[in-house]
Design brief:
Shape: elongated
Distance between the termini: 34 Å
Strand order of the largest sheet: 2-1-3-4-5-11
Order of helices and strands: HHHEHEHEHEEHEHEHEHEHEHEEH
Largest sheet: 6 strands, parallel
Structural class: alpha/beta
Helix content: 40-55%
Length: about 350
Amino acid sequence: MMIQRRSRTLAVACLLAATATLAAAGCAKSETSSNAGGDSSQGAQEVKTPDSSSGSGCSLKTYGAPKLDLKDAVVGFSQSEKEANPFRIAETQSIKDEAKKIGVKKLLTTNAQSQLSKQISDIQDMLSQGAQFLIVAPLNSDGLEPALKAAAAKKVPVLTIDRTVNSTACKDYVAFLGSDFVEQGKRAADAMIKATGGKGKVAILLGASGNTVTTDRTKGFVDQVKAEAPGLEIVAQQTGEFARDKGQQVMEQLIQSKPDITAVYAENDEMGLGAITALKAAGKKPGKDVKIVSIDGTRNAVQALVDGEYNAVIESNPRFGPLAFATAQKFYAGEEIAKNVIITDREYDEANAKDSLGGAY
């Protein structure tokens, strides 16, 4: 009976907290829960000023697609990676939520499970099912050409999100929506310089190869450290494939091969959280003995900041639903869409982490 009363009390408390302005963090769920999107009122995407969206515009007329009312349309969403990563959970949920909100007739969703061949076949399958507009989160920057050509042959516009593709805008796809990844790397470097005082030995846990996210986040970080903190030596760069278990394995190896590492830059939060586990197992104090900075903005990473086991997190906002469908509506209304629609990203640090936890995903 005591357990039942406590359960009912907790449920009531969370329900009441949901109506309060500052209570989002109080009833936070785990990273794999339906609350992975975080508090949308705090975490909504914002587009930078118009001059930050680069490239010539693409309109319905120049793209050569037929006019379409999304409320009478079949829309397809191709997710690239399995939804064990909080970023992917939040991204997919955001697309589903917004499609429902604006009244899309039918939303098809697929998951490529980190297999390029499957993402190609997923997109082709959705086209066969009558998809008239596609939102694609590319697995890699190269390799999707067969799928893009299949869409172009049926005059189905494609909007890419979160990763760019090395194809021709307004021909192979309409536009890219996402972050400035070089800038993310630069900001991560600035945060690391602040945390370390600009001195020490840093290891980089690289993201997956074959996409511009990894390339750009590495370039931004390395160039900024070289320019601003020559005393901060980059002693290792090894891929953790954007996965927590792989990040942990790499960190375990680096602790053995380079025991004098004093800082870790992880190109996503999952690898950074894996590094925490490895450091603790080795008797080191993450956030103190070894400074950690990563990119994403997941709830677990921001919580690690609150707990003193992390030093900074640069956000990469996955809530693309509202922006993706708003962009689609503008496109079908005849407006020109910039080649690159760049969003702003916040930064979490030790000073704001506790108050900002509700906006993490």
